[in-house]
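User: Can you fold this complex?
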Amino acid sequence: MTIEELKELKANKTVDARGTACPGPLLEAKKTIGTIQAGDIMEVLSADEGSKVDIPKWCTKQGHEYLGTIEESGYFKIFLKKK
Amino acid sequence: MEDNAIMERKKMCLALFSGSLDKLTAAGVILSGAAADDMDVDVYVLLQGARAFKKEIGDNLEQLSMAENANLKKEFIESLSRLKVKTWIEFFREAKSLTNVKIHICGLAGKIWGGEKLEDFVDLADDICGINAYITSAQEADIHLFI
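Assistant: Here's the predicted assembly.
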């Protein structure tokens, strides 16, 4: 997905994990993805530099689809689609 | 997700020898990673680790030392607090709530620190075990760590 397409995306669920350091955002993502429906889009907000590598890798390994990341000022928006 | 072959559960065996605050925190972060990946985890709590698991120790930071840079303990604790990092016990508890984590206390280690029964340890401990349980788990694990 291009950045423009990502910006147009409406997430079904937002996980704001900006207040925590690793492994906080990953665990928040893990907990929340269990609560949404297959096909739903989840965005994870993280201010942790490691998350932008960690969460896409975890997402793919778990069988979900990683859609892309937008870098905002001081944090990342990481988009996932639950399978 | 049923059609996804990579969802097969992997096993981790963690030998937790250390009872120091920094290493317990590292173990907690690693357990969190294992939990995010839905791994089955066996933690074998050995010598110094068993002391930290005693009910009266646990999250009592006064009672825990650092494995390295002992002079920086205060700074370490302040940083954890500022970064909103969980305490080591909270990491272990959360990992247990998310995946299959079993915590086994080495019988000998328990006795060394005056812990004979499961009730002598923090409520996260599942059982008191012998060394064969650890070796068997290590033989079967996909990941085996000694901390």
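The domain at 5-146 of chain B is CATH 3.40.1260.10 (Hypothetical Protein Ychn; Chain: A,). Confidence is low (pLDDT under 50) at residues 1-5 of chain B.
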